[in-house]
Amino acid sequence: MVDRMMNMNPCEGLEKPEPAKTILENMDAILKELGNELERIDSAIYSPKPFEDRTDPVDECMLGTLNRQRNTAEALLKLAVHIREGLW
Q1: Angle at Cα 76 formed by Cα 44 and Cα 55, nearest 5°?
Q2: SS3 labels along 46-67
Q3: What secondary structure letter does DSSP report for 9?
Q4: Residue 56 backbone dihedrals phi, psi, to 5 degrees
Q5: Pick the residue with more confidence: 77 or 21?
Q6: Helix 20-45 and helix 62-87, axial crossing angle in degrees, nearest 10
Q7: Which residues, at least 6 apart from 68, have a Cβ–Cβ distance to it below 8 Å?
Q8: Which pLDDT value is given to residue 3?
């Protein structure tokens, strides 16, 4: 039984998985929209401030993309905490 479980492919029978590049591009789009929404909420709670001009990512290696996305997610978390502090 254990031998059979060790040889199982978790993707067997499922659709072909998306390529990593597609997933990372989708993540960029999600982070960008999340950032836009959080900035709108932050501006509604506090005084409006100009939006930072975000440029689309340039060609970079996967590790560079992951690091950039992690930094973006960290900045969005800080913005969400700032919003929470304004509500309480």
Answers
A1: 95
A2: CCCCCCCCCCCCCCCCHHHHHH
A3: -
A4: -65, 145
A5: 77
A6: 20
A7: 57, 60
A8: 56
**CB–CB of 17/11 below 8 Å?**
yes
CA 68/CA 35 separation, integer angstroms: 14
Q: 3-state SS of the chain: helix, strand, coil percent to 5? A: 65, 0, 35
Tokens of 18: 């998306």
pLDDT tens digits for range 52-78: 666 666 788 999 999 999 999 999 999
Please report the pLDDT score of residue 68 as a whole number: 94
Mean pLDDT of the chain: 84
CA distance 39 to 28: 16
Other Cβ atoms within 10 Å of 15 Cβ, number: 6
Q: Which two tokens stand for residue 2?
A: 């254990």
